[in-house]
Amino acid sequence: xxxxxxxxxxxxxxxxxxxxxxxxxxxxxxxxxxxxxxxxxxxxxxxxxxxxxxxxxxxxxxxxxxxxxxxxxxxxxxxxxxxxxxxxxxxxxxxxxxxxxxxxxxxxxxxxxxxxxxxxxxxxxxxxxxxxxxxxxxxxxxxxxxxxxxxxxxxxxxxxxxxxxxxxxxxxxxxxxxxxxxxxxxxxxxxxxxxxxxxxxxxxxxxxxxxxxxxxxxxxxxxxxxxxxxxxxxxxxxxxxxxxxxxxxxxxxxxxxxxxxxxxx
Length: 265
Description:
- The strands form three sheets. Strands 8-7-6-9-11-10 form a six-stranded mixed beta sheet, covered by helices on one side.
- The protein is built from nine helices and 14 strands.
- It has two domains: 5-82 and 189-262, 3-Layer(aba) Sandwich (Rossmann fold); 87-184, Hypothetical Protein, Haloacid Dehalogenase-like Hydrolase, Chain: A, domain 2 (2-Layer Sandwich), CATH 3.30.1240.10.
- The chain is globular.
- The model has no long low-confidence stretch (mean pLDDT 95).
- The protein is an alpha/beta fold.
- A hairpin with a 5-residue loop joins strand 4 (70-73) and strand 5.
- It comes from Cohnella cellulosilytica.
- Pfam families: Hydrolase_3.
């Protein structure tokens, strides 16, 4: 199969656990692009953070960010497609988190806003190449919000998810990592954004290769003609994929690309 579009999750997939792009993975991604595939970063990260990864790859083009809540052009910084959430609906979750002292941020397609930030949160943002804007949410919130991201230790987030089971949710909540829960529009997902982009390009799903490692990747892996889960994925994610490769710490992305997108090109 000649894959025309290759969708790549970033953290836990493209990058290793030290948030590094290894030489073998970088070379494989660039070679796949040189052989004609469109490389699309498809991440829970914000657009500014994802831009840093794309630049490190030496590529440019369209990115799917915020778990599919925004689709942007890396060169013009144009928001091509997004799914915004209302302030009223966002404040319900904000009040819950504020009462419990749990860290969260608010995101537009390119900007990330916080009210407070401790050392742990600052280190996390540094690893993600994100630069938070500190502001007050008391009177007004940023316009065109696409996502709220919650950061806390895994046991804390497990308890949050448990409490939220009794809620009637107007927004979607998704676990995007052991230490993250994202709150966004019900219609926002990597899978739906990837389908939207493929239809804009006229690319059939069988010509799409996707790789990911977490729950927010499952719909994308199921939609793609060939979905690949990393060995470091939870079992449910592996079950949603067509193939399981080696982990992100073993150059899993390169292993797949060298076989499916380079050797066959």
